[in-house]
Write a structure and sequence with these properties.
Strands 1, 2, 3, 4, 5, 6, 7, 8, 9, 10 and 11 form an 11-stranded antiparallel sheet that branches. The two termini are about 45 Å apart. The protein is built from 2 helices and 11 strands, in the order H-E-H-E-E-E-E-E-E-E-E-E-E. It has about 260 residues and is mainly beta. About 10% of the residues lie in helices and about 55% in strands.
């Protein structure tokens, strides 16, 4: 009787794996297939730390902004999934006024600053298991984007030196991620939860700040470079950075189709 019960359980599991996405006869697990879409959230540990470092270099922010706002999946077949994500963040500040120097003189002063971050994350995944309850897959993604910051301070005073202080930074970031994943489909809902683990690397160019000071009286411009977080001035400078290691991502996905 135990063997018969075990065989019946196997048969029931076999029937579940043949269910169609979103079909009412699938009682345990709704598995996506060819033509289905998915919206998912799941920033990885390295993405969170990368953004923390990025904004710490800009303005010493201790909060995370710019996590993936749009992440989509599309199943070209029952086993092949294309995916893509977008990260974007921008902050700006502007002010102007007359700075009081003495009771009878003042200085016209204006300043503006901004920081921004943009990244595309295309990739794909191949799913091995046809079961509705658990799904095992492996994949690759290629993050690519830009980040930067600007600061401009302009002052005008008829009785003193006029000039402009301009500081900015632009950086290209390129990465590579290879991962394996496991996700579970919740009841008969078009929702899954899971995790992805693998190796990831990120390379950043332009890890320097360019400073230009313009003297309007003498019509001269002095240009210097600084490392991030280091006030030392350099005449010319090249600075890049990279990181490589293991990574972990927790995911929640909602599936749908347009049929």
């Amino acid at each position: 009787m135990a063997c018969l019960a075990f065989a019946g359980a196997l048969q029931a599991q076999s029937l579940l794996t043949k269910g169609n996405p979103y079909a009412t006869n699938v009682r345990t697990g709704n598995r996506p297939g060819a033509g289905d879409w998915g919206l998912y959230i799941g920033p990885s540990y390295s993405e969170v730390m990368d953004l923390v470092d990025c904004f710490a270099n800009f303005t010493n922010l201790d909060v995370v902004r710019g996590l993936p706002l749009v992440n989509v999946k599309y199943y070209t077949s029952d086993k092949l999934e294309l995916r893509g994500g977008i990260q974007y963040y921008k902050r700006g500040f502007r002010a102007s006024g007359n700075e009081i120097l003495t009771p009878t003189t003042d200085k016209e002063h204006s300043m503006k600053e901004s920081e921004w971050f943009f990244r595309l994350i295309p990739g794909f995944a191949y799913h091995f298991s046809p079961r509705n309850v658990l799904d095992v897959y492996t994949g690759v993604s290629l993050p690519l984007g830009f980040e930067g910051s600007t600061y401009k301070d302009e002052y005008v005073n008829p009785d003193a030196v006029n000039g402009v202080f301009n500081q900015y930074r632009k950086s290209l970031c390129v990465g590579l991620e290879a991962f394996i994943g496991l996700q579970a489909f919740i009841a008969d809902l078009p929702v899954s939860v899971g995790f992805e683990y693998g190796l990831s690397g990120m390379f950043h160019t332009g890890q320097k700040v360019k400073t230009e000071v313009y003297d309007a009286v003498n019509n001269t411009t002095q240009t210097t470079y600084q490392l991030l977080g280091d006030p030392t001035d350099y005449k010319d400078l090249k600075a890049n950075s990279g990181v490589f290691g293991s990574d972990l991502r927790l995911t929640i996905t909602y599936y749908f189709n347009n049929k």
